[in-house]
Write a structure and sequence with these properties.
The chain is an all-alpha fold and 225 residues long. Helix content is 72%, strand content 0%. Helix 5 runs antiparallel to helix 7.
Length: 225
């Protein structure tokens, strides 16, 4: 397959990123590696930030391909574990890409798909009646904990990394956001509220108006908290 000039520039930038980190991504170095003139880069990407966005998207394409390949099982909590492990493995094996993809305050479009995958898994846990906290908070806890572990390990010399933190943090956050079994008695009202909200979001039906659904969602969130 013949690569476009844009593709050549993105791949050249990706290789420089892997070899030398973000500091290696000067527009001059990328243009030289791709065999094009600097004005071509600016015409295609606007500026360096535009190029970085394209490189981050390129990294997300690889990451998301692995996410989709995991598929789904009947156990959403096990799916959460597998997704966590893949996320950590990607971050540790390609730290320069990970820092570009997740280490900045701006949220690129490509990242939104990855966030949506995590939310879907957590939503399935909620539907099963096994979530202790609202879906959005649970997804944020999982992501923040996973990212914290990765950034902490990346910042440590390889020989001093405690890889046991990966599993310990994973199981701690899972224990924090899930119950051992599906809500089976009337005392577990928060999990029931979370499960009901997840079910209504998946299939809202037409029994309630949009305004009524919004009000019910607010009430269920309040009960869940």
């Amino acid at each position: 397959m013949t690569l476009t000039t844009r593709d050549r520039l993105v791949r050249a930038a990706a290789e420089l990123l892997l070899e030398g980190g973000r500091d290696a991504l000067s527009t001059r170095a990328v243009s030289a590696a791709a065999g094009v003139q600097a004005p071509t880069l600016y015409r295609l990407f606007g500026d360096k930030d535009g190029l970085l966005d394209a490189v981050a998207t390129y990294g997300f394409e690889s990451y998301l391909a692995g996410k989709h390949a995991l598929g789904e099982t009947e156990d959403p909590i096990d799916d959460l574990r597998r997704g966590w492990d893949l996320h950590v493995e990607f971050g540790l094996s390609q730290p320069a890409f990970y820092l570009l993809m997740y280490g900045e305050p701006r949220v690129r479009e490509a990242r939104k798909e990855a966030d949506a995958i995590l939310r879907r898994i957590v939503g399935r846990i909620a539907e099963a009646g096994r979530l202790r906290v609202p879906v959005e908070r649970a997804a944020q806890l999982v992501h923040a904990t996973g990212m914290g572990v990765i950034l902490s390990l990346i910042a440590s010399p390889a020989e001093r990394r405690d890889l046991g933190l990966i599993t310990a943090a994973r199981e701690h956050v899972i224990a924090t956001i899930t119950t051992d079994t599906a809500a089976a008695d009337d005392s577990d009202v928060p999990s029931r509220a979370i499960a009901l909200k997840a079910a209504l979001e998946k299939d809202p039906g037409d029994a309630l108006t949009p305004a009524e659904r919004a009000l019910l969602a607010e009430w269920l969130d309040r009960v869940a908290r």
